[in-house]
From TrEMBL:
<dbReference type="Pfam" id="PF25137">
    <property type="entry name" value="ADH_Fe_C"/>
</dbReference>
<dbReference type="Pfam" id="PF00465">
    <property type="entry name" value="Fe-ADH"/>
</dbReference>
<dbReference type="InterPro" id="IPR001670">
    <property type="entry name" value="ADH_Fe/GldA"/>
</dbReference>
<protein>
    <submittedName>
        <fullName>Iron-containing alcohol dehydrogenase</fullName>
        <ecNumber>1.1.1.-</ecNumber>
    </submittedName>
</protein>
<comment type="similarity">
    <text>Belongs to the iron-containing alcohol dehydrogenase family.</text>
</comment>
<feature type="domain" description="Fe-containing alcohol dehydrogenase-like C-terminal">
    <location>
        <begin position="193"/>
        <end position="386"/>
    </location>
</feature>
<dbReference type="InterPro" id="IPR039697">
    <property type="entry name" value="Alcohol_dehydrogenase_Fe"/>
</dbReference>
<keyword id="KW-0560">Oxidoreductase</keyword>
<dbReference type="InterPro" id="IPR056798">
    <property type="entry name" value="ADH_Fe_C"/>
</dbReference>
<feature type="domain" description="Alcohol dehydrogenase iron-type/glycerol dehydrogenase GldA">
    <location>
        <begin position="11"/>
        <end position="180"/>
    </location>
</feature>
<dbReference type="GO" id="GO:0016491">
    <property type="term" value="F:oxidoreductase activity"/>
</dbReference>
């Protein structure tokens, strides 16, 4: 058990279940406002799910405005455009219907609406103190866990970097609605990549140096839910049981990883995703097998628990042998979902590896990753994945 001082906190009220979104107008009324700014994924605007939400808001006499110009890595410019629409309405509440990017824009609008200035002013940890506008989030992908996490990520296109705005108590949504019907329009590739992103959140948070008994409890359940339902959801987006399990698994991981930090998978994915313009979840999936194998010797007992959660029979095995089953189970999961085994297939150039390794080492993930990793180690990891 980690002997350093740590904590666990999640302020979000979570509503889950089939057709739970139909209670939305009741939740809005709790905040005493009739003016709602909506951030909506553009791909969802003409879906029956979102149109039903529009009709519910009209029936409840809610005055709402919609912003949907949201990029995969949302920019500060998008936040400014969204903020103008929200201010014109004088919104008292923010509603997000979409994936992590949509929820992040909604969070940014909520923060600046009450604290003033620009979202750039709040880059870092707890740089604002006034509670944002209340946020209700309905995630339509099971991946980022942004609805319950204390961070949002917005791209500063001028500086060419991603700003992380973090506040454990003020940044999560006030209410998160986890409805499996929200996942029905997700393409299989998006379900796959976002689901593996959620798995990596749970896995890396579980083996983090900063893990504690509370994060362990939510992460191991997240690992179980995701590993036993992701294949089914990718195969059939109308599988409500799998969809709800994935939403819950993603949210559980989201409750933990912001408090424990992540590891080498996210570190490597961060830089190959930026260099080769890959979806974040795919970047993670490409790096996951080699990093899982590399980190195994740092905490075999945790790996044995992962193997058990992923359905492996570890009865009577030595801890190290059980740990190896976790690595095999992770490789099987990626193979079953069609994740390429080689970074070369997505355009990585071998001559870029030394530079990527230096960037990874300089990013400082050794404070979270269970196995201390040198530049030489990162070079070896990239070459193994190449």
């Amino acid at each position: 058990m980690n002997q350093q001082i740590s904590s666990y906190f999640c302020p979000t009220r979570i509503i889950m279940g089939n057709e739970s979104y139909r209670r939305l107008s009741d939740f809005i009324s709790e905040f005493g406002t009739s003016k709602v700014f909506m951030a909506v994924d553009a791909a969802l605007l003409k879906t029956a799910f979102v149109n039903d939400i529009f009709e519910m808001l009209k029936a409840a006499d809610v005055d709402y405005s919609v912003f949907s110009e949201i990029e995969p890595d949302p920019s500060a410019d998008s936040v400014e455009k969204a903020l103008e629409i929200s201010r014109a309405l004088d919104a008292g509440l923010v509603l997000a219907v979409g994936g992590g990017s949509t929820i992040d824009v909604a969070k940014a609008v909520a923060i600046v609406s009450t604290n003033g200035g620009r979202i750039h002013d709040y880059e870092g940890i707890e740089k604002f103190s006034i509670p944002p506008l209340p946020l209700i989030a309905i995630p339509t992908t099971a991946g980022t866990g942004s609805e319950v996490s204390g961070s949002c990520v917005i791209t500063d296109t001028v500086r060419g970097l991603k700003m992380s705005i973090r506040h454990a108590s003020l940044n999560p949504a006030r209410i998160a609605i986890l409805d499996p019907l929200a996942l029905r329009t997700v393409p299989p590739s998006v379900a796959c990549h976002s689901g593996l992103d959620a798995f990596v959140h749970a896995f890396e948070s579980f083996i983090s140096r900063n893990a504690n008994p509370f994060t362990d409890a939510v992460n191991i359940e997240a690992i179980r839910l995701i590993s036993s339902n992701l294949r089914q959801l990718v195969a059939n987006p109308e599988n409500n049981d799998a969809a709800l399990s994935m939403l819950c698994g993603s949210a559980l991981a989201g409750m933990a990883f912001g408090q424990t930090g992540l590891g080498n998978v996210h570190c490597m994915a961060r830089f190959i995703g930026a260099r080769y313009h890959l979806p974040h979840g795919l970047s993670n999936a490409l790096c996951l097998p080699v990093v899982a194998k590399f980190n195994m010797i740092a905490n075999p007992a945790k790996y044995a628990a992962v193997a058990r959660a992923m359905g492996c029979n570890v009865e009577g095995l030595r801890t190290l042998d059980a740990a190896r089953l976790a690595v095999e189970a992770i490789e099987d999961l990626c193979d079953d979902l069609g994740i390429p085994r080689h970074l070369e297939s997505i355009g990585l150039k071998e001559e870029h590896i030394p530079e990527l390794a230096e960037l990874c080492y300089g990013a400082g993930y050794n404070k979270w990753n269970p196995r201390t990793t040198s530049v030489k180690d990162f070079v070896a990891l990239f070459k193994q994945a190449f």
